[in-house]
Write a structure and sequence with these properties.
mainly alpha, elongated
Amino acid sequence: MRVLVLACLALGLSACTTLTQEERRAIDEDTCRSYGFRPGTDAFAACLQRIDLDRRADARANRAEFDRWASRPAVIYQPVYVPVRRN
């Protein structure tokens, strides 16, 4: 039961953080405007491009970090009890 509740909670929280492409673009444009770039200029386009390239680089780095841990073999250790013989 706890697992089901935790799974539903995780699913609900993950839905809150997902942005549509339009929302992400609007945030990126606001960011570039806050830096002082004007829409329709080459500098504004370059700003948007840098933000996109940074986002892609972060995604690659996160994927590489996950792959590094996921590709290691799992080592399972289980102690084995060996009784001591007494003569």
